[in-house]
UniProtKB/TrEMBL annotation, chain A:
Residues 124-218 form the Acyl-CoA oxidase/dehydrogenase middle domain. Pfam families: Acyl-CoA_dh_1 (PF00441), Acyl-CoA_dh_M (PF02770), Acyl-CoA_dh_N (PF02771). It comes from Phytoactinopolyspora halophila. The keyword Iron-sulfur does not apply. SUPFAM superfamilies: Acyl-CoA dehydrogenase C-terminal domain-like, Acyl-CoA dehydrogenase NM domain-like. Keywords: FAD, Flavoprotein, Oxidoreductase. Its cofactor is FAD. This is Acyl-CoA dehydrogenase. Coiled coil: none annotated. Residues 15-120 form the Acyl-CoA dehydrogenase/oxidase N-terminal domain. The keyword Repeat does not apply.
From TrEMBL, chain B:
The electron transfer flavoprotein serves as a specific electron acceptor for other dehydrogenases. It transfers the electrons to the main respiratory chain via ETF-ubiquinone oxidoreductase (ETF dehydrogenase). Pfam families: ETF. Its cofactor is FAD. Coiled coil: none annotated. This is Electron transfer flavoprotein subunit beta. Keywords: Electron transport, Transport. GO terms for cellular component: cytosol. Heterodimer of an alpha and a beta subunit. It comes from the Bacteria. Residues 23-212 form the Electron transfer flavoprotein alpha/beta-subunit N-terminal domain. Belongs to the ETF beta-subunit/FixA family. One of its GO terms (molecular function) is electron transfer activity. The keyword Protein transport does not apply. It comes from Phytoactinopolyspora halophila.
């Protein structure tokens, strides 16, 4: 049974059907082999783009789908149920488009956004550096003004789609002064001086390339600066508020996939003469998994509806990211337990889900940073 | 170039398909319906031909209310408009009646250059409607086509069967296509949004000047007397190899006359 979804219009119902069709036919069968070989599914991302899924939350005047976050996030969840790498690709791309969509001038939006949100291009988001992770304001990549250009030099780390993306949304320092000295730039992949490290050898999500990005005197025209000089850190944090909702939805989808695999295995697998789902020890574990997945879904949808209504949602986005990814870790761990020995081998997908869940507690703000965001909000604004 | 593509709404083959108890016709209500997968190839080919020749693609179906979903799918893929022939009297129509009604509908659409269909429906699967239609309309008919092109008033097509033939016909023509001809596209979200604004006409038998007595179960040349569910698959026989596994295997195959 497909997950019951909120479908504000019949077209959204058709959209979910389309995503499930593409997911079942093009994603699910390829996930296992591609994760084993580490082959980035560029062609799948192109198909996703042709299907109009790379710009769902952006305005229709720039070629986006003009859908509320509530809809976009459920699409991400459906994709993640079938292949987390692809869902992550869509989420990171959407994140990389956000600074231009939200902070670009009318001229900048008109010039670059349609190709980014309505087609097959994919984007990458370059904020972290080897020595500036959670403390992003400590980044040291420099952007030095030289006439009508900025010259960018530095190293970015943990960049999803590094070496594969068509554009890079890069945060770099235009002046000293901590978080107030950072600016945001839209850098095309063919910019001279841009190069990439070899893909990291990761625990999971191996079909999604993660690399260092080297900027060696990359000349970027001033017209490619998004927002004013010094606005960069605020842009980065606001982009991450939206990005975290994407991660919450992806973690929910991964948990849902682990739950579905576990329930179907527990109904088939017999021990002591009966399906193990009827043993209370297993049945209760599955019940807790279902509760964890459904509460994660409810949280990201709550945050999304606040965002869609134009209300503040930073606090709720952090709560959703924190709970959904912690829940995904627990659910995928329990899924391995439900499968027993079979869960520890690569013949079943839950071993992979378990490895994929871990990074979700880490990227787009570790869950410790989410707690920091929530605690600061409590300190400033109360409950 | 005006292309009509025939789109049939059929019960999803992945679901449990049943028949009505009273008259043994296909239950089209109690099961999820989809656009017959073989017709998706016809839609794709129509869109490709229309795209290169700046043509118009009209999706035509005949069937109960829910059949409009087949048209919707074609519109989401990119067809320009739809025609749905719907009338209670059509219930139980055979291929002869179907071809009669569709021929009238194509006549009413008018000035059609090309009619494209799948090589069969994934429910009835008789594959006779295209030929019957061609006969009724006086169109050329090329069946089971794996590759085709249209140049001016000429259709050129490759038919794959025991031998491969390349044939030509003058338009107007009816072409049924196989699943080798192309890779049907997925709809896009833009296609989904655009489809709701595309025109779909609904025609009754009266609109087509067809009498109710000419169609439906009573007019069918053959009627289904009984239906039997295919027996559940039983577990195969497991042969334990106690050193004589080969002999047992050969005996089993011989008993089923495989060797």
């Amino acid at each position: 049974m497909p997950v019951a979804r909120i479908t504000p219009t019949p077209e959204v119902g058709d959209l979910f059907t389309l995503v499930r069709d593409i997911g079942d036919a093009e994603l699910r069968p390829r996930a296992d082999p591609a994760e084993a070989s580490g082959d980035y599914p560029r062609d799948v991302l192109r198909l996703i783009g042709r299907s109009g899924l790379l710009g769902l939350p952006y305005d229709d005047d720039v070629g986006g789908g003009a859908q509320p976050y509530e809809v976009y996030l459920q699409v991400l969840e459906e994709l993640a149920m079938r292949w987390a790498t692809v869902a992550l690709g869509v989420s990171v791309h959407t994140l990389a488009c956000w600074p231009l969509a939200a902070f670009g001038t009318a001229e900048q939006r008109k010039r670059w956004l349609p190709d980014m949100v309505s087609g097959e291009l994919s984007g990458a988001y370059c904020l972290s550096e080897p020595h500036a992770g959670s403390d992003a304001a400590a980044l040291s990549t420099r952007a030095v003004r030289d006439g009508e250009h900025y010259v960018l030099t530095g190293t970015k780390a943990w960049v999803t789609h590094g070496g594969q993306a068509d554009f890079y949304t890069v945060f770099a320092r235009t002046s000293d002064g901590g978080s107030r000295g950072i600016s945001c730039f839209l850098v095309p992949a063919d910019a001279g001086g841009l190069s990439f490290g070899t893909p990291e050898r990761k625990m999971g999500l191996n079909a999604s390339p993660t690399t260092l990005v080297y900027l060696d005197e990359v000349r970027v025209p001033t017209e490619r600066r998004l927002g004013d000089e010094g606005d960069g850190f605020g842009i980065a944090l606001q982009a991450l508020d939206s990005g975290r909702l994407g991660i919450a939805a992806i973690a929910t989808g991964l948990g849902q996939a682990a739950l579905e695999a576990s329930v179907s295995y527990a109904k088939e697998r017999e021990q002591f003469g009966q399906p193990i789902i009827t043993h209370q020890g297993v049945g209760f574990m599955l019940a807790d998994m279902a509760a964890a997945v459904e509460s994660a879904r409810a949280l990201y949808l709550t945050a999304a509806s606040r965002r869609d209504a134009g209300l503040a949602y930073r606090h709720q986005a952090s709560v959703a990211k924190l709970v959904a990814t912690d829940n995904a870790m627990r659910v995928t761990t329990d899924a391995v337990q439900v499968f027993g020995g079979a869960g520890y081998v690569r013949d079943y997908p839950v071993e992979r889900y378990f490895r994929e869940a871990k990074v979700m507690q880490i990227f787009e703000g570790t869950n410790q940073i989410q707690r920091l965001v929530i605690a600061r909000d409590l300190e400033r604004n109360g409950t | 170039m005006k292309i009509v593509v025939l789109v049939k709404h059929v019960p999803d083959a992945a679901a449990d398909r049943t028949f009505h108890e009273a008259d043994h016709t296909t239950d089209r209500v109690g099961v999820d319906g989809i656009l017959s997968e073989l017709d998706e190839y016809a839609v794709e080919e129509a869109l490709k031909l229309a795209g290169s020749e700046s043509g118009e693609v009209i999706a035509l179906t005949m069937g109960p209310e829910g059949s409009a979903d087949a048209i919707k799918r074609a519109l989401q893929m990119g067809a320009d408009s739809g025609v749905h022939v719907v009338d209670d009297a059509l219930h139980g129509s055979d291929a002869l009646a179907t071809s009669h009604v569709l021929a009238e509908a194509i006549g009413k659409i008018g000035e059609v250059d090309l009619v494209l269909t799948g090589m069969a429906s994934t429910d009835g699967g008789m594959s006779v409607v295209p030929a019957m239609l061609a006969e009724r309309l006086g169109f050329a008919h090329i069946g089971f086509v794996g590759e085709m092109s249209v140049d001016g008033g000429t259709v050129r097509a490759r038919r794959d069967s025991d031998v491969t033939e390349t044939v030509e016909a003058a338009t107007p023509a009816i072409v049924s296509v196989t699943d080798q001809i192309n890779e049907p596209r997925y709809p896009s979200f833009k296609g989904i949004m655009a489809a709701k604004k595309k025109p779909v006409e609904s025609w009754s038998l009266a609109d087509l000047g067809v009498a109710a007595e000419q169609v439906g179960l009573d007019a069918a040349w053959s009627q289904v007397q009984s239906v039997t569910k295919r027996p559940e698959r039983t577990q195969g026989e497991v042969v334990t190899d106690d050193g004589d596994g080969g002999i047992k295997l050969a005996e089993f195959l011989a008993s089923r006359k495989f060797i």
